[in-house]
Amino acid sequence: MLSDLTLQDLCGRAEQAARAAGEIIARSRQSGYSVEHKDTGGSAASQVVTEVDYQAQAAILEILQPTCSELDLALLTEESPDDGARQQKQAFWCIDPLDGTQAFVQDILHYAVSIGLVARDGTPQIGVVYDPVAQSLWRAIRGQGAFRDNLAIRVPEPDKSRPLVLSSDFSLQTLPWYEQTVTGMEEIAHELGFTGSEVEFRTGGVTNACGILLDANKVYFKFPKEKGGSLWDYAATACLFIESGAIASDIHGAPMDLNRPGSTYMNHRGLLYASHQEIADRVIRLYKRLR
Question: Are 256 and 272 in contact, with CB atoms under 8 Å apart?
Fold first, then answer.
């Protein structure tokens, strides 16, 4: 197990790497870039890649790759093949150099740099997220709390004079039980005393999750399917949520499978982010009723 001091040092390097990638993303937004499509990925959004993704990844690896030999860590990134070393090493970096590439291409301000460190048993150790537009940095270390721009994250209480909001990506609309989900969210809102419920569709799992830590009226979940949702989409935010006292789990309420053998997809058990347990519990019940 990595010591607290070692984790602090690694988190500092991850912050440096995230800011370096963020600078590249911010510059490229103004100067232009090329767009490609890749064959991997479980959704249209995951198949979009730009030269900015690769440049941001290179900047991150320049800072973090030396730690792999120093501390015998593995490395998993969205834009490189999985070499399987994450199953043998004590921990691995889990990197998405530009989460929300589709939003970036469409100039929608809903993308971020995401860097996580995950133990071999799947336990989140470090989570760093950097928003290159707001220039805001989120960080968390196992057992040492979660912070946004050096201020401790305190999850607010829900404001029940406003609606309960399901924040999700557009894939939700393709599910056969989409209408039942919308109806179920309305029922949950009524049970908990909210004024109603709404659904907002946004690409970018990282920013969807982080939004809950700012607005406790939001919940983000994905129902299980074999493809969709990758380890690097959720490793960093899982750590942020755990350390801030919020809920990050699979759709059954169990810990996320953040080091799944043989696949980088992790939506096989679904996932759930919520500000408070009472909201999470009702979403879990909703899924049990729908399946």
Answer: no
According to DSSP, the residues that pair with 114 across neighbouring strands are: 96, 129
Q: What is the DSSP string of 47-80?
A: GEEEHHHHHHHHHHHHHHHHHHHHHT-EEEETTS
Residue 270 · residue 223 · CB < 8 Å = yes
Of the listed ranges 23-32, 72-81, 135-144, 282-291, the least confidently predicted one is: 23-32
The predicted pLDDT at position 272 comes to 97
pTM: 0.92
Q: Nearest-CA neighbor of 268 among 281, 283, 284, 252?
A: 252
Kindly list the distances between the CA atom of residue 178 and the CA atoms of 174, 196, 222, in Å, as whole numbers in the listed order: 7, 17, 11
H helices within the chain, ranges in order? 4-31, 51-71, 101-105, 178-192, 205-214, 231-244, 277-290
The pLDDT tens digits for 204-236 are 899 999 999 999 999 999 999 878 789 999 999
Tokens linked to 101: 């590439």
Cα three-residue angle 270-188-269, rounded to 5 degrees: 10
Cα distance between residue 204 and residue 259, in whole Å: 21
- Cα distances (angstroms) measured from residue 262 to each of 85, 93, 250, 259: 11, 17, 18, 9
3-state secondary structure of 128: strand
Supply 199's token pair: 């659904």
Q: Measure Cα distances from 55 to 92, 98, 159, 252 in Å.
A: 21, 10, 41, 37
Which residues sit opposite 128 in a β-bridge? 115, 139
Neighbours of 246 (CB within 10 A): 22
Percent of residues, the chain, with pLDDT higher than 70 = 93
Strand order in the sheet with 136-141: 74-77, 91-99, 112-119, 124-131, 136-141, 146-148, 151-152
